[in-house]
TrEMBL record:
The lineage of its organism: Archaea, Methanobacteriati, Methanobacteriota, Stenosarchaea group, Halobacteria. InterPro entries: Prenyltransferase_related (IPR050475), UbiA_prenyltransferase (IPR000537), UbiA_sf (IPR044878). Its main location: membrane. Pfam families: UbiA. It comes from Natronobacterium haloterrestre (Halobiforma haloterrestris). This is 4-hydroxybenzoate polyprenyltransferase. It is a multi-pass membrane protein. GO terms for cellular component: plasma membrane. The chain crosses the membrane at residues 21-46, 52-71, 91-111, 117-133, 145-162, 168-188, 222-245, 265-289. Keywords: Membrane, Transferase, Transmembrane, Transmembrane helix.
Amino acid sequence: MTHPTVTHRTRRLIASLERALRGLVHSNLFISLATMSVVVTTVILADLPLEPLPLFIVFAATLFVYTVNRFTDLEEDEENVPDRASFTKRYGRYLLALGIGLYVAAIAVAVVLGLPGAVYLLLPLAVALLYSVGGIKQVFLVKNLFVGFAWGVIPLGVGYYYGQLWTLEILVITGYVTAMITVAAVIFDVKDIEGDREEGIATVPNRLGTAATRRYAQLANVAIAAAVVAIVVGTSLSLEFLALLAMNGYVAGYIPFAHPDRTVLYYGFIVDGEHVFLAVVVVGLEWLVW
């Protein structure tokens, strides 16, 4: 028989872990880790040396863009994700200051080091403005595609940084990230059905329903996985790229559970954690096999 003290301690431990994870999600630190994970995956699969500067730039730009979006979406979050809205009201100004500071520092470092294409570091600012105040979210599917392409810029940026922009490896990773993030963005809209309807935002879930959204997202996931296999088989790409299928399996596992009533940790940790998962798989295989 389990001792009551042990059970109480376990519950406290779980509660503390949940609070910590919520803090990582609400603060945008976890999503910034996710974009850094895209850099790691890209570097390893493209057989490039891992350097700290691209990781820092991507982390800083992500924290800046997503924190700005927290403020522009505050009213909507009060309806859809009240805990996140409360967190933003309490800590948002500090995180915004941190995001702006790191973003400016990233630009300054790029300029001082004379990095080619430093001007492209203004793209995150353009993304923040277009997404948050430019009305992109009001157009059916455009929001999802915009988010997908914004994440797809990350492997392109890695390729540019290393002088490998137009290689097959970089282009395939770019297409894969763009496609998979678009699918994730559609799933993410499931949690916002009521709020999006009130705001007049047309999304796949509030037009087609939750069940249909899950079916179409799963079909897209399978199609992307099939495309990966076809490209690896039909081109000179290394078999290492089949590691991407691990993320398709991960996504296939969370799609059936997408529902408006899921907690913020389902969307903000499990769904947003897909690229963290992939990076862990790729790094693990690099050490163990390749």
